[in-house]
Design brief:
This protein has 240 residues and is an alpha+beta fold. It has a single domain, classed as SH3 type barrels (Roll), CATH 2.30.30. It has five helices and eleven strands. Strands 9-8-7-6-10 form a five-stranded antiparallel sheet. Strands 1-3-2 form a three-stranded mixed sheet, with no helix packed on it. α2 runs antiparallel to α3. InterPro entries: Tudor, Tudor_domain_containing. This is Tudor domain-containing protein. It comes from Oryctes borbonicus.
């Protein structure tokens, strides 16, 4: 609540601007309230300041899609697993909100390593600074895996260790296919999403959260205004 003394009329010119805050209803949740797990899942997107794509489905009913990665699953779909999941042990689970994201300020320059580019002109890179810590973390992961071979079933938005071509990396669980015993995971330090069997997933300890998630997904400036967009993307793919 703000005191009346701090309230003022706005000018006519300001009144011409549309309100930027738009309360919405997520598809699939029109009649229900969010559970504590679902609220925590959504708060993770807010804290990471992730960019979302929105699709209107009806009267004030929307679907939201994360632009981070290439899974193209709506937040509503990802949240379905939360209601089906067993009650989590809050003290032992590591959620995406527990790991900071590496961010750059506008105008900041940084040496980075390009690790991939997606067909929709999204480029994925990781910062060169802190690579020594990252290498040390990977060594700790290798050591941890040798003594922790038990497969693990994470809930949506939980961090885990996931196998990729014989190596283990930090990943975020995006969606589970219980029937096929598969999970779609997003590798938070490399920016790619894949579907892997549950046997390729391990529980991630909390002390692996010290290093921020390194993968940054961005767009190349002015590439959409170029007549040679596809040629530029092909050249970048060849270079990396």
């Amino acid at each position: 609540m703000a005191p009346i003394s701090e309230l003022k009329n706005i000018s006519e010119s300001l009144a011409e601007y549309c309100a930027t805050l738009t309360p919405i209803t997520l598809k699939g949740f029109e009649k229900g309230r969010f559970s504590d797990e679902e609220i925590e899942f959504l708060e993770g997107y807010c804290k990471r300041e992730e960019k979302l794509l929105t699709k209107k489905c009806g009267n004030n009913v929307f679907e939201l899609f994360s632009l981070n990665g290439n899974d193209r699953l709506s937040l509503s779909e990802k949240m379905k697993d939360l209601s089906a999941a067993p009650p989590p042990n809050e003290e032992s689970r590591v959620m995406s909100k527990d790991v900071a994201s590496w961010k750059m300020k506008p105008g900041q320059t940084e040496n980075v390593i390009c690790v991939g580019i997606q067909d929709e002109d999204q480029i994925i890179f990781i910062p060169h600074t802190g690579m020594d810590q990252f290498v040390a973390l990977n060594e700790k992961i290798v050591e941890y895996i040798t003594t922790n071979s038990e497969p693990y079933s994470p809930i949506a938005d939980e961090l885990c260790l996931a196998n990729y071509e014989g190596e283990w990396y930090r990943a975020r669980a995006e969606k589970a296919n219980k029937a096929l015993e598969e999970y779609q995971v997003y590798y938070i330090d490399y920016g790619n999403s894949v579907t892997i069997p549950s046997s390729d997933i391990r529980k991630m300890p909390k002390d692996f959260c010290e290093i921020p998630a390194l993968a940054v997904v961005g767009h190349i400036k002015d590439i959409n205004n170029s007549n040679s967009k596809n040629d530029i993307i092909d050249i970048i793919k060849e270079e990396i």
